[in-house]
Amino acid sequence: MYSESDVQSAVTAGAISAEAAQALRDHVARINASPAVDEEQFRLITGFNDIFVTIACLLVIFAAAAVGKPLPLAACSGIFVAIAAWAMAEAFTRKRRMALPSIVLLIAFVVGLGLAVLSGLEQAIPQHRLVEYYDYAGERQRYESWQHHPWQIAVMQIAAAAAAGIGALLHWRRFHVAITIAAAVAALTLFVLASVAALRNQPWDDNALIAPAALICGIGVFAYAMWWDMSDRARTTQRSDIAFWLHLVAAPLIAHPLFHWMGVTSGESISMVTAIGVLAIYVGFAAIALAVDRRALLVSALAYVLIALAQLFQLYGAVELNVALTALVIGSALLALSAWWQIIRRRIMQLFPESVQARLPPVG
């Protein structure tokens, strides 16, 4: 079985012509009665050997982190992980072009660099004494601890995000793995959010600016993903894979602030009006997902909808079956949407002017 990346690689190498590759795609699409663009395909594994190599890579990464942990320099674990990930990428990404190991090694390299800088600064920057008072058994109690200031933690995160982002760009120049652009954008997003946290000198949970900043970043990442998507409407090149990973980064940045403001993440019971509002937002996400032919928004918002719908069933007395009913309703709805995706998408696309339709993926 050959993936889209294999076909594109054959065209690049001159093994087959671009016309022959497109004829092959059209033939497979006719057989499946579904164009490739509607399937949102991306290459992950081509055989069990990919899984086998990935497991071996994870073991080496774990060993590299463990070797660096007892050393006096806190950054050693992250540095060793980054070095090991880059070295293995030379073999399994640059030479053998294995998809799943390449993704794992890229993530390990970027996270390793970020953790190296974060742990190194955490060790280097001095902590301050924090004194707290609380009442216990009718008596005033005193509690002391040594901590970093919120702005210090934010500065560490800024430096870690910068290191991860620069590492991702260097990795892209060397290996050109599709997920690398998304990793760099995620690092940039962390850089922005940590900068907001540093300006307010507050923990993230107490900073009222984090949620709107995350939403703005999410919309920006979504627009960037659409730029990649619009440059490959037929989804036959790596640009489509890059857009896929960018959509996965954008989706939680958009979904979480909206549902956070509605109280879904507070852990408390929500009202019926709130639950209906959550479902309405999810329907809006579904409309956007259908228009751009990307399912990332639906997946990212799924957990919030499950929580809201479960509480809605509980509100109407289905206490024991609320989880089962929620799973049944959402699962059935998603299955129906998957089965009739092209039909529903065709109806939605008819609502847009032709100039907009010309920029979106074609309807099968």
From TrEMBL:
Alphabetized UniProt keyword annotations = Membrane, Transmembrane, Transmembrane helix
The yes or no answer to whether the keyword Secreted is present is no
Transmembrane helix among the record's keywords? Answer: yes
Which residue spans traverse the membrane? 44-65, 71-92, 99-121, 151-170, 177-197, 209-230, 242-263, 269-290, 297-317, 323-341
Protein name according to UniProt: DUF2157 domain-containing protein
